[in-house]
User: What shape does this take?
Amino acid sequence: MPKRIIRPLIPAAATLIPTGLVQAFTGPFVPIFIMHRFNAPDRGISGQKPDELRRSLAYARKHKYNPITLGQLAQYSSNGQLPPKKSVVFTIDDGFIDQYEVAAPLFEEFDIPLTYFLITDLLDGKLWPWDDQLRYLLNHAPDGYYKLNIAGSEFGTRLADPASRTHCRYELYQLLKSRDNTNIYNALDSLYQQTHVEKPDTTPGQYQPMSWDQARDLTNRGHCIGAHSRTHRILSQLSDEDAAYEIKTSIALTRERIPATAPIFAYPTGRPGDFTEREMRNLQQEGISLAVSTKTLHYKPVHSADKYASYQVPRLNMPSSLAEFIQSISWIDYLRQPNH
Assistant: This one.
């Protein structure tokens, strides 16, 4: 993300030069925000804070941005149309219960639709994502030095305080992402044993998913649903057969449970290297017209010679402060991007 400008100047700059005026010269660009967890203290969940979100959403409404779903953006693209100026999209990945209980009512206060991407095996109660399990086991491992064996490689680390655990989680996360993901959940089972952490028999409360009934209710309330794989494994680190299975079955299951499912998809973790042209071809074959990554840029909906341009749409992390949100939703960060 571009470096932040002096915060007190941000609202004044965005107001002095309206985004709509900038887009009259640059053409439309769309900030697509990504979110995950939302504060729910009664469930032990920390994440986006409702009061901070309200300030940002109130700003978007006051300054006449046009909130649309990613399904609507995909429809504009499929029809060869540009979205309305000052369009903005808010997306949420995974399908956890706080995303239904906290996020949906909050955004509905401002009549702003959300786009949800669901991990189908999470909603089916078959698993909770491997990266969340990694966080859980490292938070619960006793203090001490560990020499961990991961797929035949040794990884030494000392767990003592929150900082060391966070650093270890980042290193292990990158390591697991870069390896064959076929048996990543077996690798997690081994790490539970090596760190002397008892794996929960049932999904802990803070990782409980929403139900399929609740997901259907979201579409009835004007929100949008898309698939986010079956098991959240890194697609580029799977065989041709397993990668196709993740895509095809997650899309089919989501469409079966939620008839209003949009032709959109979010790659697990979605960073460069997490998906390839193979995945884009598979999505195209399944009738998906737009897929999102986590590459941190504004989306510019213009015709591209790249036939897979709509299968690598970037998203922005949802800022935690109003000043950063104004910088992201307005023209300020967009003009600081390369090749804007």
Summary: The CA atoms of residues 59 and 326 lie 8 Å apart.
